Amino acid sequence: MNEKGYVTFPYEILKHIEPYVKSLKWKVRCVEHNNPDNESFPLNEPHDYFLDGEQLFSLLQQYAHVQWIWGVLSGFPRELSWEEIKGNSNCYDITVDQPYLKNGLCHIEPQAVFELIALDSSETYVLINDDAIISSLSSHFPHAERLESEFKKR
Predict the structure, then answer these.
(1) CA 89, CA 87: separation in Å to the nearest integer?
(2) Residue 100, Cβ neighbours under 10 Å: how many?
(3) HSE-CB for 124 with a 13 A CA cutoff
(4) Which of 110, 57, 53 is nearest to 86 (CA)?
(5) How many whole angstroms separate alpha carbon 1 and alpha carbon 143?
(6) Are 33 and 14 in contact (CB under 8 A)?
(7) Cα–Cα separations (whole angstroms), residue 118 to 6, 13, 18, 29, 64
(8) What is the CA radius of gyration of the chain?
(9) Is residue 1 exposed (0-12), middle (13-18) or buried (19+ Cβ within 10 Å)?
(10) Which of 5, 30, 20, 48 is nearest to 114 (CA)?
(11) What is the DSSP string of the chain?
(12) pLDDT tens digit sequence for 71-120
C-alpha cells in the first residue's frame, strides 16, 4: 500500500489499527523528522529503538504532529524474543539504500509482519502480511495505491 502526498505522519496511519499495533514488538529507525523541538522528541538519536506496541503507540500519539521525513517502523510478532529480533536485525541507511526493493518489494526485516516506511516526506509504504489489516487500512485510505501484486510476503 502506498499513499502519496505528505502522509509521513505514522500516527495518522497507525491510529486506525491500534489493537494490532499494540499487539506487536517494534524496531524503530527514525532518521529524520520535522519536530521543531528536536530535544523533546524521544526518537531523535540516529540508532535503532526497540519498543513494545503499547510504548510505540503512546509515543506516536503524544507526537502525532511530528512528520517523519525518513524512517522505518518494523513490527514483529510478540512471540519473538528481543534477542531474536535484534540478532536478525538488518543494518541499512533508508536515505541511501532501498532495502524494501531488494529481491522485489519485501520487508526490510526478515521476521517483520508489518512495516511502515517514510520516504523523503512524500510517500509512505506500508508492507503488511495480514489481509484483514490491509482491508482495514484500505478503507481509511481509499486513494492508496495497492502494491500487493509486487509485495513478496516471507
Answers:
(1) 6
(2) 20
(3) 25
(4) 110
(5) 10
(6) no
(7) 10, 11, 19, 10, 14
(8) 14
(9) buried
(10) 20
(11) -EEESS---HHHHHGGGHHHHHTEEEEEEEEEE--S-GGG-TT-SSS-EEEEHHHHHHHHHHTTTPPEEEEEEEEEETTS-HHHHHHT-----TTT--GGGTTSEE-SSTT-SEEEEEETTTEEEEEES-HHHHHHHHHH-TTPBP-TTTEE--
(12) 889 999 999 999 999 998 877 766 666 666 666 677 888 899 999 988 87
Separation between Cα atoms, residue 134 and residue 145, nearest integer Å: 12
pTM > 0.90: no
Residues comprising the chain, all counted: 154
**Which amino acid makes up residue 114?**
F
Task: Read off the pLDDT of residues 14-26 as tens digits, 9 standing for 90 and up.
Answer: 999 999 999 999 9
